[in-house]
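Supplementary Methods. Inverse-folding protocol.

Structures were first reduced to a discrete structure-token string of length 640. This string, shown here, constituted the complete conditioning input.
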């Protein structure tokens, strides 16, 4: 686990400048650092740098950049290849000098070429330089557990695990990509391939980028929709067979993620996913597994007692830490420091706190991420199923309300909130992404109209707030379609980003057994009725969990976690929010519609959240705005 950065350029970037870029990633890798610059034909220069968090082979043999024995290949890499020992056996003819998975990447490339990535099972962001072909490759893991940004402009390429090294690169202008802002305000994160900066992108999950003589070529070696449809040709027909194969795959995945030369533990919330992962880890371990959970003094949010009950049953070495509102509030200022583009999922705060707790005892922690998306666990999936059943009725209501006389009277806008949502859900490409139309309107209206000259040139065309891609999945069942969409967007863009930044803030490696390649691909073969059985979400995963833990310790309503953002925004953050939304500040900033946003925030201060039935709970939208402005003050200063 590390942080990487580098460049391929004809500009003169010095070793000291690359060192400064690399040092912004110190929190990702405090154990070691390496910086090297190589000359390429044609006046190009290659810079590779890495900050190391030592997990495997703690000796100096794991230092990066790492080179092949013949000097042909150089690599910097962030992540873990969990099947590296199996691959190493296939590569026995290579003269290995270390016990690092990094060296296995080099040997695999020399034997199989860039197709070697299809053999890697793990989480990774890799930069590889081949001196023989003069190609540079950037590679990201299948589901996007490890981040990889790149800035491409004037045939020069700069890459990094986070945005900070790119921001530090000489010549970086840092122009904000305004067209992504409405979607960010609504979704609370920025999904790949976009980023907050113009000409800066996230390499998409499952993608390879090839840089050759100033030209980029990008392709996918793994993508959700293709792998899903391929798996449908070989579905499970027997429930018990599916359960046993999934159980075996999960157990193998957990075992592989327990290989480490440093202390290891497990996050434990007491929910199904983390409890199952922990139970399997305990089964594989000769000693009690170290487990970690945080508790909240507010009973409606507190899951710590459930986590402790599971820990006691399994016999883990459990540590819990109770936090109050002040503990959470104190982390607000650090959000833009470690999430170095706007990121407004407030559960990042709890994730940072449990990561801090775990780091006091271990360097690696297992997590249950991925269970909801792959096995139908979120409440939205039930809502989606209901919406599909009501879609025909919604179309009729919308049709009637669109009749000339009724449309002029605005009848549809006066319907009850839930009826209005179903009736207004007419866009074919975003059927599973329904929600409050007021939120959509406000998110769009908040951002200032883009420069007309640039728009006329075909640049910065406005983004849809929704992901208008649902037909590409070719799935009639809305539930399955939304799950696939979440695997492409919400899981890598929000959940995995949140966990990566929160854990790496404390130099902690988080490993996700459910997101193992074999587990993901096997899950696509499992009929949906085995996952969502008679309204029971995650049915087959729960069934496996019950083989380890009594049902009464796990079966309870999903509690989730919520930061009191309405209370904070209209309380201790009020003056800061008012400063961020003042007309004069917004006019100087020249990003948001100054009049609209200033009036909207003033009104929000008076009313706060109006209640869930109205769909007018604007604290979430206001929080997204606040987090952007907090980020802007940290990285942009005066309006550009």
């Amino acid at each position: 686990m590390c942080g990487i950065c580098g460049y391929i350029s004809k500009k003169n970037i010095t070793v000291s400048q690359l060192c400064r870029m690399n040092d912004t990633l110190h929190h990702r890798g405090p154990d070691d650092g390496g910086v090297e610059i190589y000359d390429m034909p044609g006046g190009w220069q290659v810079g590779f740098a890495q900050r190391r968090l030592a997990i495997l082979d703690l000796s100096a043999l794991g230092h990066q950049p790492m080179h092949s024995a013949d000097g042909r290949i150089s690599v910097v890499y962030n992540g873990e290849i969990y099947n590296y020992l199996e691959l190493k056996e296939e590569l026995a003819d290579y003269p290995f000098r270390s016990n690092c998975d990094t060296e296995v990447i080099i040997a695999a490339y020399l034997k199989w070429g860039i197709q070697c990535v299809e053999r890697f099972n793990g989480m990774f962001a890799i930069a590889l330089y081949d001196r023989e072909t003069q190609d540079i490759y950037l590679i990201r893991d299948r589901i996007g557990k490890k981040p990889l940004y790149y800035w491409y402009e004037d045939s020069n390429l700069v890459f990094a695990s986070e945005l900070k090294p790119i921001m530090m690169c000489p010549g970086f202008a840092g122009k904000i990509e305004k067209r992504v802002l409405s979607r960010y305000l609504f979704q609370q994160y920025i999904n790949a391939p976009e980023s907050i900066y113009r000409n800066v992108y996230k390499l998409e999950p499952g993608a390879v980028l090839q840089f050759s003589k100033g030209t980029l070529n990008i392709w996918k070696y793994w993508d959700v929709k293709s792998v899903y449809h391929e798996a449908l040709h070989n579905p499970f027909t027997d429930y018990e067979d599916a359960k046993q194969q999934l159980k075996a795959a999960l157990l193998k995945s957990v075992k592989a993620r327990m290989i480490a030369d440093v202390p290891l533990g497990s996050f434990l919330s007491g929910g199904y996913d983390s409890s199952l992962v922990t139970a399997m880890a305990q089964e594989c371990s000769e000693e009690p597994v170290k487990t970690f959970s945080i508790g909240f003094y507010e009973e409606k949010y507190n899951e710590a007692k459930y986590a402790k009950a599971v820990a006691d049953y399994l016999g883990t070495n459990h540590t819990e830490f109770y936090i109050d509102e002040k503990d959470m509030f104190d982390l607000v200022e650090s959000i833009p420091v470690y999430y170095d583009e706007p990121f407004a999922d407030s559960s990042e705060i709890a994730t940072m706190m449990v990561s801090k707790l775990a780091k006091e005892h271990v360097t690696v922690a297992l997590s249950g991420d991925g269970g909801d998306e792959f096995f139908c666990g979120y409440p939205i999936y039930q809502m989606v199923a209901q919406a599909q059943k009501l879609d025909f009725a919604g179309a009729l209501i919308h049709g009637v309300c669109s009749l000339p006389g009724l449309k002029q009277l605005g009848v549809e806008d006066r319907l009850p909130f839930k009826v209005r949502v179903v009736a207004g859900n007419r866009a074919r490409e975003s059927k599973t992404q329904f929600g409050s139309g007021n939120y959509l309107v406000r998110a769009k209206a908040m951002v200032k109209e883009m420069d007309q000259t640039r728009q006329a040139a075909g640049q910065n065309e406005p983004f849809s707030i929704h992901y208008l891609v649902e037909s590409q999945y070719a799935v009639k069942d809305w539930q399955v379609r939304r799950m696939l969409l979440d695997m492409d967007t919400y899981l890598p863009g929000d959940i995995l980003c949140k966990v990566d930044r929160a854990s790496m803030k404390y130099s902690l490696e988080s490993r996700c057994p459910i997101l193992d390649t074999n587990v993901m691909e096997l899950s696509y073969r499992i009929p949906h009725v085995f996952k969502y059985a008679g309204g029971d979400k995650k049915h087959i995963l729960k069934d496996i969990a019950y083989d380890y833990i009594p049902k009464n310790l796990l079966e309870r309503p999903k509690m989730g976690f919520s930061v009191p953002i309405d209370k904070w925004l209209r309380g201790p953050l009020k003056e800061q929010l008012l400063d961020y939304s003042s007309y004069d500040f917004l006019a100087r900033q020249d990003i948001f519609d100054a009049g609209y946003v200033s009036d909207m925030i003033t009104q929000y201060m008076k009313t706060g959240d109006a209640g869930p039935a109205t769909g007018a709970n604007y604290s979430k939208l206001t929080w997204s705005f606040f987090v952007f402005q907090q980020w802007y003050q940290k990285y942009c200063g005066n309006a550009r």
